[in-house]
Design brief:
Layout: H1 2-21, H2 29-58, H3 65-75, H4 80-95, H5 102-131
Helix pairs in contact: 1-2, 1-5, 2-3, 2-5, 3-4, 4-5
Length: 132
């Protein structure tokens, strides 16, 4: 459980840094790109936290981000709508390496506020299930 708690703390810290920039109007391309970078590492921290949760608490071994999202739905951490959005978020994360495409970068940036909210719900769902 110690490993899970450490992961959870790291994910919450990353999420706090994303929330600082998500949903605000970017003053520059650097701001936008920094927000996208924060999304990348926050998403990584959250899905890996969920992976550890699934293994340690639910006894489920899922190896990919989409597999972890689906397993979290089956475990009751995410509902169907949240799962659908989380799967779309995985796709956005996979596209972030293409931030040189200005249109794509702007599209992903515009979704960061919603992504931050879902990442927050995901972590809260894990914490709720840990407390049961």
């Amino acid at each position: 459980m110690e490993r899970l708690e450490k992961r959870l703390k790291t994910a919450k810290t990353a999420l706090a840094s994303l929330k600082e920039l998500a949903g605000k109007k970017p003053g520059s391309l650097i701001y936008r790109d920094a927000a996208i970078q924060r999304f990348e590492y926050t998403f990584e921290a959250v899905w890996k936290t969920a992976k550890v949760y699934l293994k340690e608490v639910e006894g489920v071994d899922a190896g990919t981000p989409k597999g972890v999202v689906r397993a979290c739905m089956r475990a009751g951490v995410l509902d169907e709508d949240q799962t659908r959005i989380a799967l779309e978020m995985v796709d956005d994360r996979n596209l972030t390496s293409h931030t040189y495409d200005q249109g794509l970068a702007q599209m992903i940036f515009s979704r960061l506020s919603g992504h931050a909210k879902l990442l927050d719900l995901w972590l809260a769902g894990i914490e709720d299930r840990m407390g049961e």
